[in-house]
Automatic annotation (TrEMBL):
SUPFAM superfamilies, per database record: L domain-like, Nucleotide cyclase, PP2C-like
PANTHER family noted in UniProt: PTHR48051, RAS SUPPRESSOR PROTEIN 1
UniProt keyword terms in alphabetical order: cAMP biosynthesis, Leucine-rich repeat, Lyase, Magnesium, Metal-binding, Repeat
A Pfam family assignment: LRR_14
Name of the molecule in the record: Adenylate cyclase
Reaction(s) this enzyme catalyzes, per UniProt: ATP = 3',5'-cyclic AMP + diphosphate
Record EC number: 4.6.1.1
UniProt key word Repeat: yes
All copies of domain Guanylate cyclase, residue ranges: 1424-1561
Annotated Basic and acidic residues bias: 1-13, 208-219
GO biological process per UniProt: cAMP biosynthetic process; intracellular signal transduction
Native source organism of the sequence: Candida maltosa (strain Xu316) (Yeast)
Length: 1789
């Protein structure tokens, strides 16, 4: 639906007897009158009356569905066919006029002189004399017509009109619409003008010209009338009856004219009037016609609806559309409802195709708007059943309405009137808001059907209970709003801006309802009028008629359901734009615009054109694309002057022979239709045709193109053409790509052909004769064919500038390639070339060469002349210190200087070959290079002094080689280097010279063997100097560690471990890297951090990406191994942002990532069986737009209220940055052996099998896909020639895209697959990858690296890059069975003797420890890591340094003693923190329990026990809960990277497992033990084994798989744990600092210490925090702060006399301070804050106490008057006086 918000326009109540009744716009300066004419039938009134009363709503629906409704804001004119123009002829104008517009009039239009003064609409206020004149002439009729207007049952209708020429007069007629108000209201507006006192009209049925046809029509109508029901207010007229127009009726403002006109109080008068004989309604008023801007209206002349007349109306025989599939023709009787029949619905009786509205048109998808409604929105049983709809008022209050699906807008408004207690609904209209679009509904349109259609198009199904879903807030899909109609005036600034140009008037997108009054005064100047994006704007007839020089009108994007008839009153129009509306019919009188040359009707709902359309003989450009034409519109072929015809994106399957009549046609677009077979030979008769587009059809033969004489451009992509023979001499451009072409044969020489695209065909060879026939070709594309060799004649194409032949089977290049002096672009990647000819150095114009993925072993040697010249330049540069130049200093001109490849080549791609180190010897002479890619070759070392010559190099790719070091000194010379990719090599360290590359923005060193000290500056590289880095990737370096450093950068003073110094950083990859520093950025909208591991049980995970052309983050991914805490569930997601603000991170993709897991978890928890998982996925995707677009909708309506659980990213969504943005989403969910895939957009997933096969798990939602295009078209959108939705969006489905609703949807394509042993891996990649790599190639590329998913992902990204991808890339690889889970692996650390007795035992250590058991061997493989830390240790050291030295010794002694007893390995200590490894989870938990209990009973220094942090805390039974140092502990189970430290010789551990264990310990508070989910799972597994052994279910040996020693040890540890008691308390998921995925955390306590949890339980439940300061929970401090703020607020109010009593600061600051208190505030910060709050409270209470005491002194009994109390200054002055008096008294005493 492509329309913008309409300015609120007035609707009126349908008049009960008039054929046309409406309220229209009012200029803001004057009251108006409405002139209403009523006609009545004197036949069958009694019979029809009963039927009408019984079938009111039915007939209303019946007539409206197939007849043009004149009461519509789309139609702008009411005809007065019975009124004749007697004004003087306009032919008296002077033809010799030479004024301003003399040369600007349309052809054939006489000169129109300027007016002597501006046109000013004449509005009269309460013209009593005129009123009396009118009343005296039509007194009786006046009261009767007023009775009609006061019908209490009338419903609102919209403005419409029609223009019907009199059968006796060819002059134009016009009229305007009038108002009719609702029941009982007296607020009638009226307009007056000068009348001719002799105005009168009589009419009768015209005799039919063809009696036989009339007789047939009479028979048909009688048959239809027996079925069709009529409206209470409709009047049926027989063809043989005489129809007399009713008298003139004045619709008065009864409040102001109460003494003149009385309003009927009942409906009896209405019935009486409807039964009056027609002869009593003869009017004596003569030929006067009011200006249309005055909203005067009259009914359509009935005689013109009768048989024998040229036009006829149509009606449906069934309201529910179940029994009728076509229009029912009318005959001798025409049924006229309360809404007058418009010319837009009057068909030509001889040429109207009755089948064009058949149900076949609507068989697939609902058409939401227009005069013809969808027949298949719901099941037949649902059409009569009641549905729920929520209707809002403008203040966002709402009511729910239960009514049938067929309820019309008028009927719904009548119901809403009672619900909202409106006095009248005449001034209200119903609008539907969808995203950023608003459409005002016509009275006949059906809101419930629209709601259901939108829900279906949005992905909802009957399973979602569509009948009842309306009770929910569906604002994110559609919102129905009852709006009060008002006329919007221009602001002063708008008026000033617009008044500068009255020739080209642009008032688009101003939310207007009518033409502003300022333009009425300058109508003679207006030549161009742009009213686009003003939905339902009304163009008054008199304004259009006054614009005598108007030649251009833009009425696009206005949501019109009916043709704006008043446009037909501008016959001088040459350009008319009506695109992006909902027009489904074109009036037959459209041909009155005979001067039209340019017409746009694209993106509407038109399926047929009237025959008269062919009379537009001057039409040259016609666009009717994106409509519903199934049959070629024949009237077009009569437009003999047509030059440009666009019929794309329709349903045409046949071209008639009459198309050959278009002899002047130069451009013909038939793209995306259903044409098949051969193009007809008669197309050759289009002798002027120059451009033909037949893409995306099913055409198999195009031989006719050879005989179209002047054809220059032909697009025939993606058809079924297998061969063609061409002899088009004029052809310049030919696109035949994506066709199964096997034969190339040109008969004649194609002298004019410059561009030829034959890619993705089946061509096996290029005949030499073919090359000879295209001598002047400039661009030749032969990609993805089966070429083995190239003819030498190919290189005789001296004008060739671009040659692309990638993905063929070429083995050699002819040496004659050097002759292509004009060649600039050469792409030969993915062939079988073994060598390149030496003559390639002769390509002096070549700027880009791509020979990736060949079999090259060397690069051709540079010519001696080139070597000599460049060597000389290099020597000179070395002497002078200048940069190497590509030119010599001999003074030769530029043409001589650029004599070889060295001077021109800027891009060289040699990736994926077999090049060795010596290739750099030749490459180094290509000194103009800016991009060099030698990835995935056999490079071991870069020779020195080679790349240093490439001083212009900005992008250098060295990935996928065997490099072990880098030439630092050479890299130092590459000052322009912006990108450096070194991933997938064998680098151990990075040279410090990289720090001198200050322009470096992208650095990838992933999947190497890095292991160096980042603080070892200046010997090794540190990032601190590369301030411009935006992309930094270390992922895959499993031994690389970024640990806390105490070494400062001498220049910045920052720690060397800090990544916070990189302010421009957007992507940081740390997968598999050990990260123990906290100086790293948190995840944010514009910062992407990856810290997960790549190896999991049964799965391997790898990810790689690039920023591409964006400088900000837009792609994100998510991997959860144990989804929902279940070992058998895995979740993998990818989010690829589209559009969005270019200056910031992509917010929609970030929000989508944040909300999906919770939504999907909630849906899975609600299902009853796995059969409903697919539906759960669908609902999870639908909830995207419910949340995201719901927020944007609320912000658009200024009704957004931040919720506590709403994330920061969601709250920051805004219409400026995010309305056009959205993202593609792909999700892989695996449960057991079943894989579920769901996606929207173009991020595709591929399941790869070990036999080389693949299975596509996703569906690409491309707008050019036929199914997607049908849905887009049904929702009101269109697809451009570039294949973009609404000309801007490359995908048809996605999250967000608020401004593209409802054309986009987030309904996913869901696939279910069973995983088998043959399935190897899944590739999930963004669009850019699949654009350059086929599915089969992707599998082949990563096959060798499938055991290393990180390297595989990086490799696939790199291949896409050197195949041509330039935009952002994201690749995720998930492998199956990467690590076979062995249940016995955890017992491998238990041997016969696991204690160490080697020389590495420390000699001379603690003698007490030597008495204990020896330290165990360091565990490897799966193990438990424990991190510990003393709470508040920094504060204690600062306060009590001496006691803390003693306390630390006690602490360390307890830790190490229990470590020897339990059997753990001390990895290392940092300060007072321990890192300990255990071979089993039971040993780790037992050690933690024993340490915690021993710490409580230790002999601590008394100074420590007296502190708040270490004081004794006991329970009611005097059991000690806290005492002494409080230690936090964290346990995690996993498999870290194990490697001995080269200095200490002790085992060290690296990787994400270490990171997570460290972060888990940070979650715990003092005295707590926090354990991860993996650890808890292992404990539960061992507990089950333990219980089975105790219950004799299985033996110890069987339970522990034969490892009896391990079993005995673990059983002993479990028994010890049972004795202590083990209590687990889940505290939910916690976001761990620096890590991507949250971790479910559980606290473990012994029975003795479990009361510790109760201290934190309340805070755990409320704030998800376990933080305590001393014994005071954080929430207590937070509450005390709130008290202090309120006290200060009270004091401020008293001090200011009650003027500044506001709590806004408290509200606004609470969120920020609360977040900091629970996250970034350290304990010392919390103590400082507490002291600060306490001081503030004391200050406030002191002030209040002082005021109270002074009040008592004054005799006010301590009362403080808030409004009249003295200020604090005055208070102090009083105290000063009192103190002085006291002092004086004291002295006297």
């Amino acid at each position: 639906m492509s329309f913008l918000r309409r300015d609120k326009s007035r609707l009126s109540v349908r008049d009960t007897t008039s054929t046309s009744s409406n309220t229209s716009d009012q200029p803001p300066v004057s009251p108006h009158t409405n002139l209403s004419f009523f006609h009545h039938d004197n036949d069958n009134n009694d019979n029809n009356s009963n039927d009408n009363n019984n079938n009111n709503s039915n007939n209303m629906t019946t007539l409206n569905e197939h007849s043009h409704d004149p009461d519509s804001p789309r139609s702008s004119v009411i005809a007065l066919p019975q009124l004749l123009h007697n004004s003087p002829s306009s032919n008296n104008l002077k033809e010799n006029y030479r004024g301003f517009h003399a040369n600007k009039r349309p052809k054939g239009i006489a000169n129109i002189p300027p007016l002597t003064q501006p046109i000013k609409p004449r509005f009269k206020r309460k013209s009593n004399s005129l009123l009396n004149k009118l009343i005296s002439s039509t007194k009786k009729d006046d009261s009767e017509s007023t009775s009609l207007n006061s019908n209490p049952n009338s419903a609102p209708s919209s403005r419409s009109g029609s223009i019907i020429p009199s059968s006796r007069d060819e002059k134009r007629k016009s009229a305007s619409s009038a108002s009719s108000n609702s029941s009982g209201t007296k607020h009638h507006k009226f307009r007056f003008s000068s009348f001719d006192s002799n105005l009168s009209s009589t009419s009768s049925a015209s005799p039919p010209k063809d009696k036989s046809s009339v007789k047939d029509k009479m028979i048909k109508t009688k048959k239809s009338n027996s079925v069709a029901s009529t409206d209470t207010n409709s009047i049926n007229s027989n063809a043989t009856s005489t129809v007399v127009m009713p008298p003139l009726s004045i619709d008065l403002n009864l409040d102001e004219m109460h003494d003149i006109v009385k309003t009927p109080t009942d409906t009896e008068n209405i019935n009486k009037i409807s039964k009056l004989p027609s002869k009593t309604h003869t009017s004596n008023v003569k030929n006067w016609q009011a200006p249309d801007s005055w909203d005067v209206k009259t009914p359509l002349k009935v005689e013109e609806l009768l048989p024998g007349h040229k036009h006829r109306t149509t009606s449906s025989t069934s309201v529910d559309h179940q029994t009728s599939s076509s229009l029912t023709t009318t005959s001798t009787s025409a049924s006229i409802s309360g809404e007058s029949t418009s010319v837009a619905n009057i068909k030509d009786s001889e040429h109207f195709d009755e089948n064009h509205l058949s149900e076949e048109r609507f068989s697939k998808l609902p058409v939401l708007y227009g005069t013809h409604h969808n027949h298949h929105i719901a099941n037949p049983s649902d059409t009569k059943a009641s549905h729920i709809i929520r209707v809002f008022k403008e203040d966002n209050t709402f009511t729910t309405v239960l009514c049938p699906l067929e309820t019309t807008t008028s009927e719904l408004l009548a119901i809403v009137q009672k619900k909202f207690f409106f006095e009248s609904i005449s001034n209200f209209q119903l609008s539907v808001c969808i995203g950023n679009c608003v459409k005002v509904l016509e009275s006949f349109e059906k809101p419930l059907k629209i709601q259901m259609g939108l829900l279906l198009l949005s992905g909802y199904t009957e399973d979602d209970k569509l009948r009842m879903i309306g009770r929910e807030d569906l604002s994110f899909v559609c919102k129905f709003v009852v709006e009060n109609v008002f006329l919007r005036s221009l602001t002063h600034d708008e008026e000033v801006a617009l008044s500068k140009n009255y020739v080209d008037v642009n008032i688009s997108s101003l939310n207007l309802k009518n033409i502003p009054i300022i333009f009425h005064q300058h109508t003679y100047e207006i030549e161009k009028l742009n009213v686009a994006n003003n939905p339902s704007i009304y163009l008054p007839l008199d304004f259009i008629q006054s614009c005598t020089n108007l030649a251009y009108i833009d009425f696009s994007h206005n949501g019109c359901s009916k043709f704006p008839i008043n446009l037909l009153e501008a016959p001088q129009l040459t350009h008319l734009n009506l695109e992006m509306n909902f027009l489904d019919e074109i009036p037959s009188k459209f041909s009155s615009l005979s001067n039209l040359t340019n017409l746009k009707l694209n993106s509407n709902q038109i399926s047929v054109l009237p025959k008269s359309f062919g009379n537009l003989k001057n039409l040259k450009i016609l666009n009717i694309s994106s409509n519903y034409f199934k049959k070629y519109p024949e009237p077009i072929n009569n437009l003999t002057n047509l030059i440009d015809l666009d019929l794309s994106y329709n349903d045409l399957s046949f071209l008639p022979e009459s198309i050959s009549n278009l002899q002047n046609l130069q451009k013909l677009n038939l793209c995306t239709n259903e044409l098949s077979g051969s193009l007809p030979l008669y197309l050759s008769k289009l002798i002027s045709l120059k451009r033909l587009d037949i893409r995306y059809n099913y055409i198999s033969n195009v031989d006719v193109l050879a005989i179209i004489p002047n054809l220059e451009v032909a697009y025939a992509s993606k058809n079924r053409i297998s061969a063609f023979s061409d002899q088009m001499k004029s052809l310049r451009l030919l696109h035949f790509d994506r066709n199964p072409i096997t034969e190339l044969k040109f008969i004649t020489t194609m002298e004019m052909l410059t561009v030829l695209d034959l890619s993705k065909a089946k061509i096996t060879g290029i005949p030499r004769e073919f090359i000879e026939k295209i001598p002047n070709i400039e661009k030749l594309v032969l990609d993805n064919n089966h070429l083995v060799t190239l003819p030498s004649e190919l290189f005789k194409l001296t004008k060739l500038s671009s040659l692309s032949i990638y993905s063929n089977n070429l083995q050699t290049l002819p040496s004659s390639i050097g002759a292509l002096k004009h060649l600039k672009y050469l792409d030969l990647h993915s062939n079988n070339l073994k060598t390149l000819p030496d003559q390639i150095w002769d390509l002096s114009g070549l700027s880009s060469l791509n020979v990736a993925s060949n079999n090259l072993t060397s690069f051709p040697k540079a010519p001696y002349a080139v070597m000599k010249r460049l060597s000389s330049s290099a020597a000179n540069a070395a002497t002078s210190g200048a940069v190497v130049s590509t030119t010599t200093s001999t003074g030769t001109d530029s043409s001589e200087q650029k004599s070889s490849l060295a001077d021109s080549l800027m891009t060289l791609i040699l990736a994926d070959n077999r090049l060795g180190d010596d290739c750099f010897d030749e490459i180094s002479f290509l000194v103009s290079l800016k991009l060099l890619n030698v990835s995935y070759n056999d490079l071991i070392e870069i020779p020195p002094n080679t790349i240093s010559r490439l001083t212009r190099l900005s992008d250098l790719y060295l990935s996928g080689n065997e490099l072990t070091n880098l030439p630092g000194e050479d890299l130092e010379h590459l000052k322009s280097l912006r990108l450096l990719y070194l991933n997938n090599n064998k680098l151990v360290s990075l040279p410090a010279e990289l720090s001198k590359l200050i322009n470096l923005q992208h650095l990838d060193v992933g999947s190497n063997q890095l292991k160096y000290n980042i603080s070892n500056w200046p010997y090794d590289w540190n990032w601190s100097w590369n301030k411009n880095l935006k992309y930094l990737n270390f992922s895959g370096n499993k031994r690389f560690e970024i640990k806390q450093s105490h070494v400062k950068n001498p220049e910045t003073g920052e720690d060397f471990d800090s990544l916070l110094v990189l302010k421009q950083l957007k992507v940081l990859g740390l997968i598999d890297v050990t990260l123990t520093t906290a100086n790293v950025q948190e995840q944010a909208v514009d910062f992407r951090l990856r810290t997960t591991g790549s190896e999991f049980d049964n799965y391997g995970y790898g990810v790689s990406d690039t920023l591409g052309l964006r400088d900000h983050v837009s792609s994100r991914d998510l991997f959860v191994q144990k989804f929902r805490g279940n070992e058998n569930e895995v979740l993998l997601c990818a989010f690829d942002g589209k559009n969005g603000s270019p200056n910031q991170g992509h917010r929609i993709s970030a929000v989508a990532k944040n909300i999906f897991v919770d939504n999907f978890t909630r849906e899975l928890n609600e299902i009853k069986s796995d059969d409903e998982i697919e539906n759960a996925l669908r609902k999870s995707f639908l909830s995207f737009n419910k949340e995201i677009n719901g927020i944007l909708t609320a912000k658009k309506n200024n009704s957004f209220t931040p919720m506590p659980k709403l994330s920061k990213e969601s709250s920051e969504l805004n219409l400026v940055d995010d309305a056009n943005a959205g993202c593609a989403v792909s999700v892989i969910y695996i449960k057991d052996k079943t894989l579920y895939s769901a996606n929207i957009g173009d991020t595709e997933a591929l399941l790869c099998r070990n036999n080389g096969d693949q299975f596509l798990l996703t569906q690409k939602h491309d707008p050019t896909n036929r199914e997607e295009f049908e849905r887009i078209r049904a929702s009101g959108g269109y697809v451009s020639g570039q294949g973009e939705l609404d000309g801007a969006l490359p995908i048809s489905r996605g999250v967000g895209f608020f401004n593209f609703l409802p054309h986009t949807t987030c309904a996913p394509s869901v696939t279910k697959v069973n995983i088998t042993a043959e399935d190897d891996l899944i590739i999930l990649a963004s669009k850019e990858v699949w654009d350059f790599i086929s599915y089969e190639s992707a599998i082949d590329i990563i096959r060798q690296d499938k055991n290393d998913p990180m390297a595989a992902a990086q490799k696939l990204r790199d291949f896409a890059t050197f195949y041509g991808a330039t935009d952002k890339i994201a690749v995720v690889v998930l492998t199956f069975g990467n690590r076979q889970k062995q249940s016995s692996s955890m017992y491998s650390n238990y041997g016969v003797d696991r204690r160490r007795r080697d020389k590495q035992q420390v000699v001379g250590g603690d003698s007490n420890l030597r008495k204990l058991e020896q330290e165990i061997e360091p565990p490897i493989g799966p193990l438990a890591l424990v991190f510990t830390d003393i709470k508040n240790s920094t504060l204690l050291w600062d306060s009590y340094p001496s006691p803390m030295r003693s306390a630390i010794k006690i602490h360390n002694s307890i830790m190490r003693r229990q470590l020897r007893i339990t059997g753990g390995y001390e990895v290392k200590t940092e300060g007072d923190a321990f890192m300990v490894a255990f071979p089993s989870p039971t040993a780790a938990l037992l050690w933690c329990f024993q340490v915690q209990q021993n710490l409580v009973t230790a002999d601590w220094p008394s100074e420590i026990l007296e502190t708040d942090q270490c004081c004794v805390v006991s329970d009611n039974d005097n059991n000690t809960i806290f005492r002494g140092l409080s230690v936090r502990m964290g346990i995690h189970w996993g498999s870290p990277v194990c490697e001995p430290d080269v200095v200490t010789g002790r085992m060290d551990y690296f990787g994400p497992m270490v990171n997570r264990a460290s972060r888990i310990s940070a979650v715990a508070d003092g005295g707590q033990i926090a354990v991860s989910l993996d650890f808890l799972d292992q404990m539960k597994s061992l507990t089950v084994k333990h219980d089975n052994i105790k219950n004799n279910v299985e033996s110890l040996i069987d339970a522990y798989q034969g490892n009896e020693n391990a079993g005995l040890t673990i059983e002993r540890e479990l028994n010890a744990i049972e004795e202590l008691g083990c209590n687990y308390y889940e505290i939910g998921e916690r976001k761990l600092k620096g890590l991507e995925t949250p971790e479910p955390i559980t606290l473990a306590f012994t029975n003795r210490l479990k009361l510790r949890f109760e201290i934190f339980q309340k805070r755990i439940d409320q704030n998800h925090s376990t933080r305590v300061v001393g014994t005071l929970p954080v929430d207590i401090i937070y509450g005390l702060r709130t008290v202090s703020l309120r006290l200060e607020n009270v004091c401020a109010a008293i001090n200011s006399g009650g003027k500044y009593a506001s709590e806004n600061f408290e509200t606004h600051s609470s969120g920020a301070i609360s977040q900091k208190m629970n996250t970034t505030f350290k304990d010392v910060d919390m103590i400082s804050l507490l002291n600060h709050i306490t001081t503030r409270v004391e200050s406030c209470t002191t002030t209040l106490f002082l005021r109270q005491q002074l009040s008592m002194v004054k005799g006010n009994e301590g009362f403080i008057d808030t409004m009249n109390s003295p200020s604090i200054g005055e208070l102090l002055d009083e105290m000063k006086v009192i103190i002085q008096a006291f002092g004086d008294i004291t002295k006297k005493l």
